[in-house]
Amino acid sequence: MPLLTQQIQDEDDQYSLVASLDNVRNLSTILKHATCLATKNGIKVTVENAKWTLTAFRMCYQGYGYPLMLFLEEGGVVTVCKINTQEPEETLDFDFCSTSVINKIILQSEGLHEAFSELDMKSEVLQITMSPDKPYFRLSTFGNAGSSHLDYPKDSDLMEAFHCNQTQVNRYKISLLKPSTKALVLSCKVSIRTDNRDFPSLQYMIRNEDGQICFVEYYCCPDEEVPESES
Amino acid sequence: MKFRAKITGKGCLELFIHVSCTVARLAKVCVLRVRPDSLCFSPAGFHGLREAGLWCEVRRGAFQQFRMEGVSEDLDEIHLELTAEHLSRAARSAAGACSLKLQLTHRRRPCLTVAVELASSLGRARSVVHELPVQVLPRGAWRACLPPSLRAADASIYLPRWRTLRSIVERMANVGDHVLVEANLRGRMTLSMETEVVSIKSYFKNLGNPPESAGAPPNGDLESMVQVRVDNRKLLQFLEGQQINPTVALCNIWDNSLLQLVLVQEDVSLQYFIPAL
């Protein structure tokens, strides 16, 4: 996403942060209640759980105690939004470290779209199997009607990278993973990694209309129940 | 008392269906006034401008046939009270029809008969007839059916593009249930609302003011904004589902007391009043 953080001297002197977006549609689909972190490289938006699909968008923040200002423009109509800020709660740090990654695969997202949209929602968990041996990469659900398994072989066309060193079978609450499907739908590629604590890291690569790339990272905790061995 | 009218033009038919559906959305019971040159809809049981109300007029030109005879020669009108949903349902069955006929009839009780001629794909005509029970209102109740007559508005302005207006009001309605409408005689309008957490304001400009808006603003300054705060949901109810392309769409504001939206398309005009909160 082409976020511009620049020092616009004249009118924006009073602001600690000024950022502009030409098209806010992608941001709006994944943004609801957010903690925004501004860095030299751009704005990192951490979402804990918006419907402004207008064309031009500008976000300004004057500093502690001031409201967040959003300026949106569509068809000659300017809308100004002032949102009172709150004391940020500490965001959870999943402490996912790249060096302790055991398994990593990169898939083309289109292969996962159908799978995620057809997930049996009666199942409480989604079980992800990653292994150097068959079934390589498997998504499983266990619902009232039965269990279903979706296998992706490591030599599938959809598989861009496959680096699995150990067999890991982990269950994650479906309710925790469902929100990530919004990012999945927008993305062209997804990377799934698990570390030595069985924590997953899902990274979605999103390419917008201008060809610019941004990433959405998703973390959650594995379900504590020990999975039964697969038959 | 006699009334018989027929619509055969496709555009007029669509407009009539649209009017019936709009009336049904905004009022449960309505009054249909049959006059020598028009049909008028007004809300039933209207007790002054303490609540929102819609008045519609469909002029004679929309009908290919129009014949009426009022209560008497001096009182050449008929006032009928009916359930708005009945009429809209009957009108909706005329989507794509060849013609729609309205007639005042008597089937053990007064009815408004709506007869729809449909051409089937097999080439054989079908007709659907609806008998809508109506109550003929006595002369004493007529006065309450007229739209309010008011002094000139404090500000009169053309409305912005319908879709933009509707989507902004829709989004504001997600956040709060009131909206402040402001306008001046220099073509500027704003819509705003605020809650404890957020405040939103949309600015429209270059909208244009109707030439007849000779009403002078309260303090004589054309730039000064006239305002009225209204129930957002009432405004949204009117804006939703409007698929017509009005030739005239404007709003009139009486400072801190009343908002009136006026739409005119060919032989149809709608005016919706929303009192200040």
UniProtKB/TrEMBL annotation, chain A:
<keyword id="KW-0227">DNA damage</keyword>
<dbReference type="Pfam" id="PF02144">
    <property type="entry name" value="Rad1"/>
</dbReference>
<keyword id="KW-0234">DNA repair</keyword>
<dbReference type="GO" id="GO:0000077">
    <property type="term" value="P:DNA damage checkpoint signaling"/>
</dbReference>
<protein>
    <recommendedName>
        <fullName>Cell cycle checkpoint protein RAD1</fullName>
    </recommendedName>
</protein>
<comment type="similarity">
    <text>Belongs to the rad1 family.</text>
</comment>
<dbReference type="GO" id="GO:0006281">
    <property type="term" value="P:DNA repair"/>
</dbReference>
<keyword id="KW-0539">Nucleus</keyword>
<dbReference type="InterPro" id="IPR003021">
    <property type="entry name" value="Rad1_Rec1_Rad17"/>
</dbReference>
<dbReference type="GO" id="GO:0030896">
    <property type="term" value="C:checkpoint clamp complex"/>
</dbReference>
<dbReference type="InterPro" id="IPR046938">
    <property type="entry name" value="DNA_clamp_sf"/>
</dbReference>
Automatic annotation (TrEMBL), chain B:
<dbReference type="GO" id="GO:0005730">
    <property type="term" value="C:nucleolus"/>
</dbReference>
<dbReference type="GO" id="GO:0006289">
    <property type="term" value="P:nucleotide-excision repair"/>
</dbReference>
<dbReference type="InterPro" id="IPR007150">
    <property type="entry name" value="HUS1/Mec3"/>
</dbReference>
<dbReference type="GO" id="GO:0044778">
    <property type="term" value="P:meiotic DNA integrity checkpoint signaling"/>
</dbReference>
<dbReference type="Pfam" id="PF04005">
    <property type="entry name" value="Hus1"/>
</dbReference>
<dbReference type="GO" id="GO:0030896">
    <property type="term" value="C:checkpoint clamp complex"/>
</dbReference>
<dbReference type="GO" id="GO:0000724">
    <property type="term" value="P:double-strand break repair via homologous recombination"/>
</dbReference>
<dbReference type="GO" id="GO:0035861">
    <property type="term" value="C:site of double-strand break"/>
</dbReference>
<dbReference type="InterPro" id="IPR016580">
    <property type="entry name" value="HUS1"/>
</dbReference>
<dbReference type="GO" id="GO:0033314">
    <property type="term" value="P:mitotic DNA replication checkpoint signaling"/>
</dbReference>
<protein>
    <recommendedName>
        <fullName>Checkpoint protein</fullName>
    </recommendedName>
</protein>
<dbReference type="GO" id="GO:0031573">
    <property type="term" value="P:mitotic intra-S DNA damage checkpoint signaling"/>
</dbReference>
<dbReference type="GO" id="GO:0000723">
    <property type="term" value="P:telomere maintenance"/>
</dbReference>
<comment type="similarity">
    <text>Belongs to the HUS1 family.</text>
</comment>
